[in-house]
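Summary for the funding panel

The consortium committed to producing paired sequence-structure records for every protein in the target list. Below we show the first two records in order, beginning with the earlier of the two.
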Amino acid sequence: MVRDHGRKKKNDSITGVIAMLVVSLAIVFLFSLYLAAWRSHAIFASVLIVIILCVFVFAYALVRGLRLLNDKRRTETQAVGVTARLGRILDDSWNEIYVFHGDSYLFLQVNRGALANIGYSMEDMERLTAYDIKPDFSRESFIETVRPLRNGAESFLIFESRHQRKDGTIYPVEVRLQYLPDEDPPIFVAVINDITKQKESAQKIIELSESLERRVEERTAQLQKEAAHRLQVQERLRESESKTRQIVNSAMDGFVTINEIGTILSFNVAAEKLFGYSANEAIGKSVAILMPPEPAAKCKSYLEHHLETGHGNANVASREVIAKRKDGRTFLAELSVSDFQHNDTVTFVGIIRDITARKEDEYKLKGALQDLRNTQAELVQAEKMASLGGLVAGIAHEINTPLGIGVTAASHLDEQARETVRKFAVGELKKSDFQAFIDMAVHSTAIINANLRRASSLIRSFKQVAVDQSSEEKRTIRLLDYIDEILLSLQPQIKRTALEITLEGARDIEIETYPGVLSQIVTNLVMNSLLHAYDEGDEGHIEISATMDEKNVEISYSDDGKGMSEEVRTQVFEPFFTTRRNSGGSGLGMHILYNQIIRTLGGHVTCESAPAQGTRVVITIPRRLECEPQDAGEPQ
């Protein structure tokens, strides 16, 4: 538009200049000739003036023609621009637009949206006809379809069809077809909408409708069956009412029914024995006769609230209440209350059981159970202290060796140092004596350093393990490094055997746990293997491995010792079970291990064993504890 406007202004300027120039020259020339003619040849001058006027008229006509020609060209340019823009808009449209020959039906023009969807290039399309991409049409059926357009009976057609892409896939379309017979050559213009999603939605609606019809039919049949069933139930209900009365009267618990104002409606035989009233005495009286004043007032208040509001749920779980007999004595009872509505009236049903004897037994049982728990806790603590005491004795003996070697080396170094000082003081020190002293000093300090490091390592391991075993602090540890420290603290017991212990797994496994509990678990497993799996002098191999996943750590402990029979294996976690009662075994080690894994660490444990096949214990614990440890409680 800007370019056309500039060209228009330029053409108008040129035309105006030419016109002004011609007019100016004509006026000057006319005026000159007129003066000359006036003076000499008047007739000749007049003729010239006429000729000049004709030239002027011709020039004016020429300028006017040039303007009309420019206007025509400008109009044509604008029309071409509009046509080009319209063509670009149609070509860029994602609607499919096809133009095909009115006689041969070959495609003449296809927009980019159609080419993108159907998969053909424009060269491919020029070799195809309109019915080639419609698998539902032959040439004859297509000609018959467009006949109303060709004979003028219809100005346009709208119908649904299917198109086939180049890759063979078929999709549904809505076709809007128009025939333009005045074009050269005559053409058809088709605007196509891909209606795949509409078809899928329609199919889903049909399927839902069919499904709903099936459900309605099924529900109707079900309701008919239910109606027939209800008739049968009502008949059976009438037959069972008499049986129900007999059952209620033969029940061991008291059954009492009351209405909304608390009047007793029924009173079974067990209730007669329980409260001391006969049925005739109780029926028609207030339920308050069966309870002390305070519970009676609460019951009355509840019934009044229920009458006023119509709200209140009497269906409650069993609860303990105080009931009153006819002679005024009270007793502890278990009461269950429910209600049902019949013919706009509410009936409350109470089931009462005398639990006086049971409560006495419960009190006795709780006392005995508390005594058992206290005893068990004392035994567990004694077992822990015994384990810690053994650890102290073993570590003390183990530390004594490197300390003794260190003291001996230090004493020898001190003696040699004094002798060297003496020789130096009296002038008897030789170069060879000094060199020998230096060699001896280096060797002695190396011995002292190595043994002190050994003692320090033992003390550090003992300190950490001992503190962990005597406390219940939760912290994050590197699992295999900590098991190394536990095994180091057990070296006094392990080195007396011919057993080899290996530790496998990733060293970067970290867990948040109770290290003292873990220490006691590993200690119990190792000591059980030393005491039960091998005889004195036996060679063997114990393997401890650890793996982890996103949430848990699995610790596998296995030995190649004697193994256990199935009878022993099934009782291995039972409290006080031991195969070496006469050798001082308490039978609490594996029981403590089980409860610590299950309740304290929140994990689980399994034991696999067979005679002469060794034993394998698999422990699974969470990598991070999310709650505090539970009481060890009753044996699992």
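The next record, for a separate protein in the list, is shown here:
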Amino acid sequence: MVAALLAAVFFALSSVTQHRAASTSDPSTGLGFGLVRRLATRPLWLVGVASDVAGLAMQALALATGALVVVQPLLLSGLLFALPASMLLERRAPRRGEWGWAVLVVAGLSVFLVAARPAAGSALADSGAFAGGITGVVAAAGVVVLVASTRMRHRAALLGVAAGLSHGVVAPLIKQIVGQSTGGVLVPLQNWELYAVMGVGVAAFVLIQTMYQSGRLAASLPPMTIVDPVVAVALGAVFFGEQVSRSPLALTVQALGFMMMTLGVVRLSALNSGALQGRPAPCGTLPSSEVRTQVRRWVPAPGVNTRAVLILSASVGAGHDGAADELAERLRRSGVDVDVRDYMNALPRWGRFLLRDCYSPSVRHTPLLFEWLFTTIENSRVVRAVVLTFCRLGNRTVRMWISAGTYSTVVSTYPLASQTLGELRASGRVGCPVVTYLTDPAAHRTWVHPNVDVHLTVTAATAAIGEHRYSVPLRVGGPLVPARFANAPSPDRLAQLRRDLMLPADKPVALFATGSLGLGDAAASARDAAGAGLTPLVLCGRNEVLRQRLSAVAGVIALGWRTDVHELMHLADVLVQNAGGLSFTEAMVAGLPVVSYRCIPGHGQANAAILQQAGLAPWALDATQFAALLRQQAARSRTPSSYDDPAQHILRLIEPAHSPEHRPRVLVQHTSA
């Protein structure tokens, strides 16, 4: 009992000091682990961390001899210590009724404990069933976090609920670990609970810091304080067999005590909900004033056509940006005003981290997981619903971008941006036509949306297969790559380039495309090409580590980021691709034969399958087949072709035709930090 009360005091001190430090941090610089790194330089926050550690120690001591159903509710008494400390640090008087509602919470706790007459259960829970319960609670916390990202008015309270859910599993995990340690101090090292408490504890800790930054302590602390013990008590009753009195009178009084606690929490949150108004916009959103300052707009003279196009791209690799930039250039040459936005900036920082920063490591190190996720999004309605919920996080900012301009059409070159636009179009919050330009040969479910007005594809095969698969009209738009890819350099220039790269004159050249991130097993592919009698010329993008590693392989020529890829494609005899995006489109325009090999999981393999099915590029499944296909494709003659221009499809949507004298405004590109 004493240890539990001491834990309540330490946790209260930790809550107040960490909240004080976090709430004064600039939210525009980001949340999550970046916030924690900044706070670690503040002495007041470090005092809070030390108090947190002391509280966890007292909590573990209390759980060693007491039941969850007793220890965790007692932590609610910390509210009486936290509120006065908060008022002292904020230098404010208590609001009317604030103390009364706080006392009501603690009184409700007392009524609940007296009526419950809790009894201890077993020291250990069944590990398998316990894992399922922990997973369910953590998943629920994740859903609440997603909701909090779109609900500014109650954001602090919702984050408090999520923090309570995640923190509520820590105590049962600690109790399980304490029970396991009775068999020896090394026993917990052999079980999953110790590692789970580390992971969940860190996630809960980061979430709590984010919660502290989102509003006043009295708005966020009570929900966390009440949800935490409720979760812990429920897990204790289900998995540890802890008991409470179940007589009709006792259950009635327990319900009364719980209602008193709930009412106190709700009223405390309501008293402070006004503090949330006027706070900075959630991370990843842009107030309208900020939107206006980031795009330098050309002010037209009276009578000049002011129609414009907004293009949403994404800084994930280079393919989406490449298509967006080329479309923007073509439209500007036709007298259209074009703004290009990075969809990543419409998402919270943690969302950008998942999509952009985790993309390359997941493809490299967890390919099976990446492939499973890609396939599951395609086939599972539940997972697609989660993805759509994630995309809604960008709705507010994208709508602001559209409202800030006089756009007659919005175009997306990134699948999740297309989902956001489709949702906004369906709800009537975007009135102008929206267009999706599919940069991948394979039409995935995230690329298509029934409320997007026009879906444009690079090839007829993508349009036909996608329309058959998803029952959404797709039309061929044509490639979006610069015209220089179609124009062969002079023989003298190609000869000079061959000398500069020290390419053997007696061997055909296999150009390897690994994207801007240098993905895939390029080393093995290059060795297989060399074994087939070709000279491997590998484009490593911005992956300097890959370039240095391949440079040490005999017979392989490794290049970093190049601006003369159009010339290299006319120098090479065959392109080897593993993703099927922009590099394939460039090769198609250049007339360069293509072979797919060692494709990256997910979209890479899906694209290879479509290209092979359409007869556009064979897919080699082993080294022997690869060698044969390389020699076969390298021996083919180039066949220049003409293609549709996607820009013409956009221009037809923004009738009347633009005046040729209309000079496009200058765009200051907005990229993420």
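Regarding this second record: Residues 2-276 form one domain. Confidence is low (pLDDT under 50) at residues 26-32, 272-306, 656-673.
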